[in-house]
Amino acid sequence: MIATLKDMQEQLNSAPHLVRLGRLFSETVLLGIGEDEYYLTFDKGQLVEVTPGPSRKTPYRFSFHTDADALERFWQPIPVPGFHDIFGLVKIGRGRITGDILSLVKNLRYFKAFMALPRGQRRAGA
Fold first, then answer.
1. Which of 60, 69, 96, 111 could bond 65 through an S-S bridge, CB–CB 3.0 to 4.6 Å?
2. What is the mean pLDDT of residues 54-65?
3. What is the pLDDT at residue 56?
């Protein structure tokens, strides 16, 4: 998973339109995938650090938790209903969002675009 996150980091940092969209987003986000945790540190729209967890000492603004199968289905080029969006995952019981929801909502378009980055790669690799 760390390789996928690093690849997402490269994709994001080489996508000026996404960096511009997230230019006001400088936060740490906890991404939970099954039992694994990853701290994603964003600075002005760029993903500057991916730190594996768990850590009780690392502060984060909000978290998104899901399971590996749901995330794999979310990353399909054309995901089925329920797996098409992070809130879709929450609605069907395969995702959970905690923390400062206002921070997420203020940067929702950016964060959703970031989370969907592997879809483009799978489309290109298919």
1. 96
2. 93
3. 87
2-115 has which CATH code?
3.30.1050.10
20: how many CB neighbours lie within 10 A of its CB? Answer: 11
CA distance 3 to 26: 22
User: What average pLDDT does this structure show over 36-63?
Assistant: 94
For residue 116, count CB atoms less than 10 angstroms from its CB and return exposed for 0-12, middle for 13-18, buried for 19 or more. Answer: middle
| Residue 66, pLDDT above cutoff 60 | yes
